Every structure is written in structure tokens, then in C-alpha cells.
Amino acid sequence: MYRGKQLENICLYDYVSIIHKIKINEKELDKLKKKCDENCDHNTIYSQYSTHIQIRWYHKNERIPILHGKNIPSKNNLKSKEHYGLYVLLLFKPWTTADDLITKYNFWYKACNAFLQNSNLSTWLQFIIKNIELLYRCSEETMLDRHLRQLAYKDPEIAKIQ
User: Fold this and answer.
1) Do 51 and 96 have their domain in common?
2) Could you report the per-residue pLDDT of 56-102, keeping only the tens digit for each?
3) DSSP string covering 60-106
4) Does pTM top 0.85 for this prediction?
């Protein structure tokens, strides 16, 4: 994920939260080119320089990314620990290529564990990662509660056992 030199240390989650990418027209592109000197290499600034501009949202106007699709698997589920590691790295570790994510490790979960134990990981991102796991646990508890209520509805004696 290339987003330009100035934003290369921002993870995907933060990028979606604080950066707004909009398509620009020819008039706006000409204005931008006038501000840039002749030695400016647009491809090193941002690969979509000629069609889009990246704008930072005003403070307190940042967005909260909503993760669509399949849930991030539980951290404690041994069958899906590779998927968990990959998802966490994709969202919360700054990267340009897949090699940036896995670095020297052979497994996604090992690279993820090393990333999560890194002292440079911000407390904000640690908080978000922990909340994702909390959401997973809450959804498990909701499903269990729903199942127990159905059993109690079918057999009132089960409800009295508690």
C-alpha cells in the first residue's frame, strides 16, 4: 500500500481514519503543479498524484473505520491464528509490500506477536486491537446466551437450575 513518503509510517487503520482521498480535476492539478518545483518527482510523492489528492481530516473530524465482511478471528483460536496474525498486521502495521508485514518470520502469527510486543506500538492501536478481541468475546457470549434462552424456553426446568 503506497501512500507517499510523508504517510509511509501510518497503518491502514489510521490512514482510513484520518486521510480523505478525492479525485481532482485538471484545474486543481495545474494549481498543484505550480506549487511544486521542477525537481519534484510526483511518483515518489504519491503514485496517484495526477488523479487524486490526499487530504487530512480536520482534528475531531476523523473517521472510525468499520470492518466489513468476515470478522477478525479470535486471537485464542488455534485453527485461525494465522488469519488473526495476517489481519492484525494488515490493519495496524505500516506497510508497502507483504514483505514489510512478515519481515523475517515464516508465519503470520509469529510476525504478529513480535509486532504486538514491540514497544513502539502506540497505546491507541493497542487499545483498538484489544477492543476487537473484546467484540469477539461479546459476540460469543451473546450466542451462548441466546442458545441458553432457547433451551430454557423449551424446557422451563433448565431455567430453574440457576
Assistant:
1) no
2) 777 777 778 877 767 777 787 788 889 999 999 999 999 888 888 98
3) T--------SSPPPPTT-GGGHHHHHHHHHHHHS--SSHHHHHTT-S
4) no
